[in-house]
Amino acid sequence: QVQLVESGGGLVQPGKSLRLSCSASGFTFSSYYMSWYRQTPGKGRDMVAGIGNGDGSTSYADSVKGRFTISRDNGKNTVYLQMNSLKPEDTAVYFCYVPRFRSWGQGTQVTVSS
């Protein structure tokens, strides 16, 4: 079955960086679009970034453009989210999502606070 396992979250000061990882299994990772979402208490999940399976084209939410970078390593079945210049409003639980299978990871908490 499809499994997605996120890691790399934590507590970080404003302006610092974190890199999230999502390890995938149970499907042919290189063949599918992958994405990152985030959710804050009381709100729905919002897409943060996505990456294609072919040319690796990327898309980002306006709120993270220029600060976050999504990438993938098909040899490791892993998708990454490099987050730079973090802001308190980036605080959320971050989820990995593969739309084709409508599958979510368990999420990893990112807290940006001084």
Polypeptide structure, described:
The protein has strands spanning 3-7, 10-12, 18-25, 34-39, 46-51, 58-60, 68-73, 78-83, 92-98, 103-104, 108-112. Helix content is 0%, strand content 50%. The chain is mostly beta strands and 114 residues long. The chain is globular, with a radius of gyration of 13 Å. The strands form 2 sheets. Strands 2, 4, 5, 6, 9, 10 and 11 form a 7-stranded mixed β-sheet that branches. It contains no helices and 11 strands.
In percent, how much strand structure appears in the residues? over 45%
Give the tally of β-strands.
Answer: 11
Shape: globular
Average pLDDT over all residues: 97
Strand/helix succession: EEEEEEEEEEE
Main sheet attributes: strand count, strand direction, barrel closure: 7 strands, mixed
Tell me the distance between the termini. 40 Å
Tally of alpha and pi helices:
0
Unreliable sequence segments: none
The class by helix and strand makeup works out as: mainly beta
Q: Compute the CA-based radius of gyration.
A: 13 Å
Helix share, percent? under 10%
